[in-house]
Amino acid sequence: MSPLLVQTDFNNQLLSFIQSSPTAFHASQTMAAELQAGGFEELHEADAWSLQIGKRYFVQRNDSSIIAFVYGKKPLLDTGIRMLGAHTDSPCLKVKPQPDLNRKGYVQLGVEVYGGALLAPWFDRDLSLAGRVTYKTNDNKIASALIDFKHPVATVPSLAIHLDREVNNNRSINPQKDIVPVLLQLGAGQILGPQFKSLLLTQLKHEHPAIDAVHVLDFEISLYDTQAPALIGLQQDFIASARLDNLLSCFVGLHAILNADDDVSSLLICTDHEEVGSTSCCGAKGPMLQQFLERLIPDAETRIRVIERSLMISADNAHGVHPNFMDRHDENHGPLLNRGPVVKINANQRYATTSETGGFFNWLCEQNQVPVQVFVARTDMGCGSTIGPIVSSEVGVKTIDVGVPTFAMHSIRELAGVADAHYLFLVAQTFFRYPQSLSF
User: Fold this and answer.
1) 91-117 pLDDT per residue, tens
2) How far, in Å, CA of 158 to CA of 123, rounded?
3) Domain 92-225 adopts which CATH fold?
4) How far, in whole angstroms, is CA 132 from its chain's centroid?
5) For the chain, what are the domain ranges?
């Protein structure tokens, strides 16, 4: 198969993965299914573990974070562990616990903004609902399941320009008042609409007919855009999709570890809650990775020695230089779409890259004839961050921050180049096959 066809096939699989992953819960579930199909055995944190050299494992936490691990045949003290980290969550609108609103006969949902979302693109989109529902069964037990309405069930209509003549000159969005989705309109004389929990119960029974749910106890439900991911542009140069930040990196890491070498140990961790600071039991600031490593290597001194021989690639999308806003980038550090992955550097440790880890990543790119770029924020602008500095400081592993250049980050629909995800995959795959210790 030609390189172009390989890239196109890879991107089509990426688009399918994003389409099947409207929430962090669904992303973790989709990854777990692919890992099982690829020969990985599921572990459960509540069970006793007996990990065997030469086998492949994965474990989930909170249904929204996942670790996959290849236990290499070579001793951990000889090779260390190749780690790649990403995150499963994306900015969105989350339904409030008591969301039911009835205004002028329109049934609406109260929502709150999750993460640093660009709000303007949420108007006038065909929105659906997905997430996790916790319910009570007929025999008075508590269980949870994922649901996805899939078809458009809501929208946030814009106010007509005739009623706000200055909207194009000075627009501000009040997230409490302006971003309130409409679900349906009541019939004439109808006073009460369906309660949200009853809608969830109906959907739960529709998607999971074997479930004997009698009552919805609680839920974590988000809205998402139903427009499918697509290759766009006159020459199909671009990928347009929701949640490219950071499901693209999750997909790259997943397929890299599925193709990892059995001789060396490799680990993929994709955590939830990065967009809100990673402070949770299943976030990068939580103990999930540290506890996995402690169970893998119980002896503290040995664990420290293995970590010293290890390295993590923190993969999270980078800001491509926008042709309409070129002044928002440092003139020497404006990554272009379709020109390769980006090494992210910050003097104030917002990124974890060092000269050693950056040099190693550049070397990996050279081995694959993959072009590589560098991003540094303007000195007079703030800089975002990733799970890279968090994991590096919590675990002590050497880390590099990289990502695929992207437009419209945190919009409901983001844009990336068709070449870059596959470029990053080639590098990640080589990383998971690198046979030597990563001690510099």
Assistant:
1) 999 999 999 999 999 999 999 999 999
2) 6
3) Aminopeptidase i, Domain 2 (2.30.250)
4) 16
5) 3-90+242-431, 92-225
